[in-house]
Amino acid sequence: xxxxxxxxxxxxxxxxxxxxxxxxxxxxxxxxxxxxxxxxxxxxxxxxxxxxxxxxxxxxxxxxxxxxxxxxxxxxxxxxxxxxxxxxxxxxxxxxxxxxxxxxxxxxxxxxxxxx
Amino acid sequence: xxxxxxxxxxxxxxxxxxxxxxxxxxxxxxxxxxxxxxxxxxxxxxxxxxxxxxxxxxxxxxxxxxxxxxxxxxxxxxxxxxxxxxxxxxxxxxxxxxxxxxxxxxxxxxx
Lengths: 116, 111
Known about the structure:
Helix content of chain B: under 10%
Distance between the termini of chain B: 41 Å
Largest sheet of chain A: 7 strands, mixed
Shape of chain B: globular
Radius of gyration of chain B: 13 Å
Oligomer: heterodimer
Structural class of chain A: mainly beta
Number of helices of chain B: 0
Shape of chain A: globular
Structural class of chain B: mainly beta
Distance between the termini of chain A: 37 Å
């Protein structure tokens, strides 16, 4: 089966510019996640979707980050305006279901953002 | 609140030897899952092994085993017969509704 697709793989922007990342999960996976991974740290959950509804966005900086999952399939994460501290890899993941149990996430290759 | 701690920033192991990567966790939920993921330099997170909090036996997947000690709240990963391709970052993660990750351990396998 096809994996989780993400684009672009790399993006360099200047601070205060905007950027958008796209993710297409594994077909049939109901749950989609966006994680932020700063260099040298573990991934931090930004937002979790169940179908097209938001389950958890408690760590999403809502003043500059937004995410949507129209039609419950692919998703877009936007940053506007970007700050230097947003430099990170943005990982998208999907799973058949969310919540408790052996809920194995499949990750995409990530989108590496550098903010100058 | 849930918390995952990995206290070893970096580890070295000789090829063909076994290595243990430490992970401790904290949660008040009676039901949770523990995972280990591998992240090679390419950046993709690869699932290795899962242990449920009610599982009586330690999980094993090929050369990977999870040493689950519930009373100590530890979930250490054991890799047997290390290979050069095992060199990567390893993350312990816990799920109790959402998946949270530790800081990671960088494993280097020496030939």
